[in-house]
Amino acid sequence: MTLAGYLIVAALLFAVGLAGALTRRNAILVLIGIELMLNAANLNLIAFWRYGRSPEALTGVLFVIFSIGVAAAEAAVGLAMIIAIYRHYKTTNLDYIDSMKG
Amino acid sequence: MLGEGIVRGLAETARNFLGSFVSKERLTTVQFPEERLPQAEAARDFPFLVYDGEDWQAGMRCVACQICEKECPPKCIFIEKSKDKKPDALGRAQFYPARFDIDVSVCMSCQICVEVCPFEAIKMDTAFELSTDDRFGGLLWDRQKLALSDAHYHAIHPTDAAHTDELLAAEKAKAEARTKAAVAKASPAPMPQPPAPAAANEP
Amino acid sequence: MTLPFTIIAALTIAGAVAAMSLRNLVHCVLALTLAFAGLAGMYLLLGAQFVGFAQILVYIGAIAILTVFAILLTRGTEPDAFLDLPSAWVSNSVIVAAVFGVLVWAVHSSPLSRRTLPPPPQITVRQIGFALMDRFVLPLEVIGLLLTAALIGAVILAMHEKQAAK
Amino acid sequence: MTETIDQIFVILKHWLVGHVPTAVEPIVSELLSVVPIILLFPLLFALITVMERKGLGRIQNRYGPNRVGPCGILQPIADGIKTLTKENIVPHSADKVVHLLAPLLLVMATFLGYAVLPVGRNMVAANMDAGVLFFFAVGSMTELSVFMAGWSSRNKYSLLGAMRAIAQMISYEVPLILSSVTVIMAAGTLSTVSIVEQQSGYTGIFPHWFVFTPWGFAGFVLFMIAATAESNRSPFDLPEGESELIAGYYTEYSGFKFALFFLAEYLGMMSISGMAITLFLGGWAAPLSFLTWIPSYLWFFGKLFFFIAGFIWIRGTLPRLRMDQLMNFAWKFMLPMALINLVTAGVWRFMPTGILRWLVCSAMVVAPYVLLGRGFMLGKRLEKRTYRFAD
């Protein structure tokens, strides 16, 4: 089992997340796409940590732990924002939320 | 103090739990099919037809006057009057029901048939375990199934039955007095029809 | 390719694709939890037990549930959640294909990626705890601060309208 | 001799594993750990149902089930046959796949929790380094299956019940984990086996259980309250309140799937009780030093029985809470208490052993309890309730 396998899975995950975030118009699904991309990055970090020269340093693992913490904060704030926007515009479709277009 | 009430409640339930093992009077449950609570005297379920004496056909009090059939709110009584007559308890010739059916699946136990019956012929039974696997015929009771003896009536509703007996005895006495008076007068002509039906037809 | 890795990778990718392509939003989130669970499985395969369990606890236990709540609180207005501009579809596909191509090219051209699995390191939770309290204490404090700020911020954002209505 | 009886299942397992070819040895070894769990705990579930029904009956001055078998002991078999032969009804508009998956996922998640519970000396299915974290991680998966059940039924009662259940579980997960963090801090490990080993010593005849410290006792009480809420037991059973939500998220389930929900509820109750035993009550350790000759697994199951009886007793006593009371209790009482308890555990760790440590830490737990309790009861009129029309 080589490192490439994990990296390809992570790349696929990232591409799927990116495609979703670009294509879907529902704000919640865009957020889900971003979550997926973040997870792909986490997978990369863990894979590099495991295949790296000094796994005892634990840098990869701790980076992922912090990243999960950040993702939790991001999801909480992001979803709160979506709910606040929904209250205002009565939609979560990003195409209709365009009052700051200028 | 928070939690005080919880502790008190727990103590109460613990007392119940342990008490139910030591004192039998705490447990109010009656183990039904084996043990039974005595029925209240005023209990009522579905109507039955009272007969006097031993033979249910001879002693049937019902004269097929069809008042109950007309009064029954859910219309669950079906009566067919007989063509001939038979003597009743007082010895007078009366019609009798050739057919008397009660659909107990329709009956609502309102007791109106009992209230209106002028002959004290229909009363409320107390039997309640009546389930049957025959959905259509099993709950349509014919006159044979409905006929129950006066003794049974006395057994289930003693007070009520005593009162009924008094009424019937008074009736009988009245009828006898009238017969005696008729004999004493010795008038050959038949009596005019009295207004009250219970006051008896001329024998 | 070992069998557990293949199964878990297939489940993860399938979950992610389903999450991004299904019509029903709740189905999307349920598929997403499958992808998250698959990722947790991958972390376990890679010997990162603590991270794997943290992934389940945070992503499945909290983020998926939070997303579901958000969907139930906001749904019912949009008939079709997909982009309806053909030109945007084309440009999006190009972007995604380009990103994926670059990533795969980078993976394949790197000599690092052909490295085989080294013997598993002896990592205990104790070591992670010591590292968190020792070398990484500043990031830990910052994360704590960030989470507190996010908590307060989320509450204020979600409560704002209600307060104004009163 | 006592050693042999104590380890009999471990020896048996080793003996059995020694007789299979080496290729399948790990699989057989795992199977021999998993199959007893999957067999034993559902059996316990069956016993608990009849125990609960009889116990509740006695609390309410009734007999409880006493028809099937001697004293009604075979009642669970009758119940099982009844549920298995019932028709499996799926609502017409339900999401069929999710509707099917929800109970399966729920039972799977609750069973997974047993993997890290040490039910006896050397008797644990998986001695994981992050065992406690694993337990709470799979515990949090139940929320998702509850949501799946409620949402896929397409029934507003189910959805409301599921939403209530999730809100309740998330709220009470915080004090649950925080109160167990005290033990993790004191033991310095996340492995359940090591936590039990740390509590297995004795001072005189008394054991070193964490419950016999001020923070341990407070943590234990908080943990049990949160565990009651987490397993949706009365008085926190409002997600499935029969009188308000007609059984909540499993309204639309029947037959075997309903039985699975029922099973999962009791399995969850048992597993979280097992976790409380592991964290606070010394796991399989004997409560007094001269009782160590009794096999360790008997001690574990004895303590489990004690906990289940407690759950039944609580259920027979307390009325159901209201939603706002539930949330207030979680966030305004449980959470501050758990946080203060965390600090207390730290103080206990760093103070020298002695009477002073006991005094300080007890004060640190009792004072907030009294104050928070006062604050919690403030503004509540608790006089005898009067009814306008009934009297």
What does this structure look like?
The complex is a heterotetramer of chains A (102), B (203), C (166) and D (391). With 203 residues, chain B is of the alpha+beta class. Chain B has a domain at 52-124 and 135-181: Alpha-Beta Plaits (2-Layer Sandwich). In chain B, 35% of the residues lie in helices and 17% in strands. Chain C folds into 2 domains: 1-76, NADH-ubiquinone/plastoquinone oxidoreductase chain 6, subunit NuoJ (Four Helix Bundle (Hemerythrin (Met), subunit A), Up-down Bundle); 123-166. Chain C is globular and about 50 Å long. Chain C has helices spanning 3-21, 25-45, 49-74, 86-109, 125-133, 137-165. Chain D has one domain. Chain D is built from 14 helices and 2 strands. In chain D, a hairpin with a 2-residue loop joins strand 1 (202-203) and strand 2. Chains in contact: A-C, B-D, C-D. At the A-C interface, helix 1, helix 2 and helix 3 of A face helix 1, helix 2, helix 3, helix 4 and helix 5 of C.
The CATH class of the domain at 52-124 and 135-181 in chain B is identified as Alpha Beta
User: Which runs of chain A of at least 5 residues are low in confidence (pLDDT < 50)?
Assistant: none
Question: What is the gyration radius of chain A calculated from CA atoms?
Answer: 17 Å
Number of helices of chain A: 3
CATH architecture of chain A: Orthogonal Bundle
Q: Order of helices and strands of chain B, N to C?
A: HEHHEEHEEHEHH
Structural domain tally of chain A = 1
Q: Determine the mean pLDDT of chain A.
A: 84
What is the CATH topology assignment of chain A?
Answer: Helix Hairpins
Give, in spatial order, the strands making up the sheet with the most strands of chain B.
Answer: 4-1-6
Quick one: biggest sheet of chain B?
A: 3 strands, mixed
Distance between the termini of chain A: 52 Å
Q: In the CATH scheme, what's the topology name of the domain at 52-124 and 135-181 in chain B?
A: Alpha-Beta Plaits
